[in-house]
Amino acid sequence: MVSEQDIASVIQGEAVLGRSKWIQIGAIENCRAWKHFQKDIWIWWIKSGFLFENNLDSRFSNATGENISEVIFLSRHFAASGMPSLTLHVIGVPGEIPHGEEAEHGGIKGRVVQPNPRFADWYRLMCKAAVEHDLVPEFDLTIETTHHGPILDVPTMFVEIGSSESHWNRRDAAEAWADVIVEGLGLDGGSGKGDWSSLTTEQRANEKVMVGIGGGHYAPRHSDVIRKTRCWAGHQLAGYSLPMEKPTDVDWDPDTGNYPVGAWKHSIETAIISTRLAFEGSTVMAHLDRKSFKGWQRRIIHRLLNELEVPVGRTVDFE
After folding, report:
1. Closest residue by Cα to residue 136 from 86, 89, 75, 178
2. Helix, strand, coil share of the chain (percent; to 5)
3. Angle, alpha carbons 319-74-86 (nearest 5°)
4. pLDDT score, position 122
């Protein structure tokens, strides 16, 4: 997906179109579109922004008759720090209430979209491409936790150039992302990276998928797990998506007492369910940013994860 309103999206789209042979097809919703000459991969170049354009997968399918299995948004990233960056993330609005309402930046409060299984492999590819294009150490290379819209029914992720207007038009950053996309989708004749559908049932059963819980928006400890291991990755939940209020009863025990009030429980449950849908047949495990929680919070989260049959691991457990 490319947005005409987003210069970082446009230059990434141009870089990808320039790397292989694409055939322009008829307009879809009065917007340009291309199909790869060999693979079932399309570029849809829409006129609007992304965040509030819900159901783009089904809209494309209805217009073309094609079955869409995943969506990747090429986008800009904004951060108040203004630090140049390459980043990627999956989407949804966990932790916000009241559930069911439209969120400020698109999506539905309390709802997440299935994570694109390419997330972890493409983060590792991104780190490699950034070095090859001499973007390091100038650019920060990071993942982000799950946030914002739109709503879709298939596995989805955003790949982004950040973090301010002075960086969004960086052609070298766009070319780095084009490297990732070409190798990641197998446009270079390879098999691609992060294609969960290519695994057999037996292979899937031996794979570990990491759901990150806690920490800040850029999730450095969860990023370390992805970078240092060969794990897959699903939703990553920042601390702000896990609001909880400690019960005031002095005898309350986090191992046996009532669960604390707050959206934290729904956030974790929703993230686990969504990740399991995207990684059917896998072992979904949690990684906690332990230092970001108080002791009673860790205990209550462990208790919930035990009920959900989700093991908790440290970095070595994801290797």
Report:
1. 86
2. 35, 20, 45
3. 55
4. 98
CA 260 to chain CA centroid, Å, is 28
pLDDT of 174 higher than 90: yes
**CB of 254 within 8 A of CB of 238?**
no
Among the candidates 174, 197, 220, a domain finishes at 197
Measure the CA–CA gap between 26 and 64, rounded to whole angstroms: 9
Domain that holds residue 231: 199-318
Decide: helix, strand or coil at residue 278: helix
- Give the largest Cα separation in the chain, rounded: 68
- Could you say which of 151, 170, 197 is where a domain stops? 197
| H/E run at residue 237 | strand 232-237
Question: Tens digit of pLDDT for each residue in 186-242?
Answer: 999 999 999 999 999 999 999 999 999 999 999 999 999 999 999 999 999 999 999
The label of the residue with tokens 């990808």 reads: 16
- The answer to whether residues 265 and 170 belong to one domain is no
Residue 301 CA to residue 253 CA, distance in Å, equals: 13
pLDDT > 90? residue 81: no
Residue 15: is its pLDDT beyond 90?
Answer: yes
Helix (H, G, I), strand (E, B) or coil at 24: strand
Neighbouring CB atoms inside 10 A of 58's CB total 13
